[in-house]
Amino acid sequence: MSWALVLVAPPEQLEILAADLFDRGALGVELQEPGMPLMPGTPPLPEGRGRAIAHFADRSAASESASALGAEPPVEIPEEDWNALWRAHHRTMQVGPRAWVHPPWEDPPGTGVAVAIEPGMAFGTGSHPTTALCLERCDELLSELPGSDLLDVGTGSGVVALLAKKLGARRVVATDNDAVALEAARQGAALNGVSDVDWALTADPDEVPGRFTIVIANILLNTLEELAPAIARKVADRGRLVLSGLLCTQGDDAERAYVAQGLRPLARKEREGWLRIELARP
Question: Nearest to residue 176, comparing CAs of 123, 135, 221?
Answer without folding.
Answer: 123
